[in-house]
Amino acid sequence: MPPHSKTRSIGIVGAGPGGLAAAMLLAQAGADVTIYESKDRLGGRSATLTQDSERGRFRFDMGPTFFLYPRVLADIFAACGRVLEDEVELMRLDPQYHLIFEAGGEMHATPDLERMAAEIARLNPHDALALPRFMAENRTKLAAFRPVLENAFNSMRDYLRPDVLRSLRLLRPHRTVDTDLASHFDDERVRLAFSFQSKYLGMSPFRCPSLFTILSFMEYEFGVFHPKGGTGAVMAAMADVASDLGIKIRLSEPVETILFEGRRAVGVRTARGDIRHDAMVVNADFADAMTKLVPDRLRRRWSDRRIAGKKFSCSTFMLYLGLDGASDDIAHHTIYLSKDYRRNVAEIEAGEAPSDPSFYVQNACVTDPDLAPRGCSTLYVLVPVGNRHGEGVDWANEQARYRAMTLKRLERIGLRDVERRIVTEKMLTPVGWERDMSIHRGATFNLAHSLNQMLHRRPRNRFEDLDGLYLVGGGTHPGSGLPVIFESARITARLMAEDLGMDPHWSAPSKMALPDYEPALAEPA
């Protein structure tokens, strides 16, 4: 479509990472962009959570704590004429995290592959020899899957592109992450070290498609980062750029409904009244937004009944603890993997809270002490649990017991006497994720990433049920996880620029400025 002379008006529902990234790109392309956010803060699940006390203010990441593959976001900043590293200090972690196995042994995961091989050898000398082969195979896999991860899938015709056809031979639909890793590593603990990352998608390594072995590969190839100030500091930097681009961000203004004329989205209704737009972007949780903001009668493929039949990710039980004193002997990231990990997974998939859970702890102040008042520290504790489907867990009656069990379990990683040290505390259960954060079923990682819910079978970036409605975030293609959510914003922005006849003027050196668009994942390490 040729460039359109009229300034296009675009409304975005939700100021999460996908919404902010899409807003930046669309504003740079010349659109008049307004973001509607129901909360009084930016970032959605990537927001900064603050707790005030007599000792001062504690700051926590609410959701994502691993900041991975910053190149995608850096390319979005570059498209807007900015440099990500000038706006946010990114600290690469080494070791990346500390893995503790209830079955015995531990591993200090490092991007230094010689040291990493030595760490693996402590568990299984034979498996250490397979690390170079694992890295080489996944380097090839990632390069092959660039067309899949970084382009829209609007129909079956998109599978017929030559670059896509070449990549599909590596999809191995009969394999899971765990079975694929078994071709490299014999020791189940080593396989867990390279597969727990499937939890970034809210899935089990025993069900997650084998494509996603690239998740652990990318950690070692490109690094695990901590943004100074936490992930919320990245959201704040994006909002600053958005403001400079003239984007209007309306906090504490929930959208009551999306307005339609026939099957075309034409605006939103908020407490201020009806506001018209040429096109709409939904960044809010997909299932929650569709079932609340879009009339069921307008939706065909994604009706309420069909959404109810979809598979969703796990949820999480969270503790955000402001502590007296530091825990300098605890790593920035620690993952404790229970002996019977398969049982953990089975309980989660059954909608239960595991009786002997694995868990994750972020001790961010060991790297970023300014997140807590002087003499204090923050502790972020995450336990994967079942989402709210069926009878599930009665969290009103269970949460106190589960909290006590979780605090006791922290002793397994060397954190003792935590209860006595607590200065401030917030607990979040699947009920809270659903009720307070508007996340369908409390499924914190959105729709599951099974093969029948990926690519064109996932809600499409140019939403297939309606006209003038687009999606960004973990509920659309390519899926969950911050780098992938940022990629969804790039895909959607390109589609919208084409559909609305906008001449983007995205800035070099961004890859988006090239006539023949090449995604950031094309870049070598």
Task: Write structural notes for this entry.
The strands form five sheets. Strands 8-7-16-17-18-15-19 form a seven-stranded mixed beta sheet. A five-stranded parallel beta sheet has the order 10-2-1-14-20. A three-stranded antiparallel beta sheet has the order 5-9-6. The protein is globular, with a radius of gyration of 22 Å. The chain has 19 helices and 20 strands. The protein has helices spanning 17-28, 71-79, 84-87, 113-123, 125-128, 131-144, 146-149, 162-168, 177-181, 188-193, 214-222, 231-244, 286-293, 304-308, 341-349, 395-409, 418-421, 430-437, 482-499; strands at 9-13, 32-36, 48-53, 56-61, 67-68, 90-92, 97-101, 106-109, 224-227, 248-250, 257-261, 264-270, 273-276, 279-282, 315-324, 333-337, 359-362, 376-385, 422-428, 469-471. The chain is an alpha/beta fold. The chain has three domains: 9-49 and 69-90 and 228-309 and 447-522, FAD/NAD(P)-binding domain (3-Layer(bba) Sandwich); 94-222, no CATH class; 314-442, Guanine Nucleotide Dissociation Inhibitor, domain 2 (2-Layer Sandwich). Strand 11 and strand 12 (264-270) form a beta hairpin.
Quick take:
The protein has helices spanning 17-28, 71-79, 84-87, 113-123, 125-128, 131-144, 146-149, 162-168, 177-181, 188-193, 214-222, 231-244, 286-293, 304-308, 341-349, 395-409, 418-421, 430-437, 482-499; strands at 9-13, 32-36, 48-53, 56-61, 67-68, 90-92, 97-101, 106-109, 224-227, 248-250, 257-261, 264-270, 273-276, 279-282, 315-324, 333-337, 359-362, 376-385, 422-428, 469-471. It has 525 residues and is α/β, with parallel strands linked by helices. The strands form five sheets. Strands 8-7-16-17-18-15-19 form a seven-stranded mixed sheet. A five-stranded parallel sheet has the order 10-2-1-14-20.
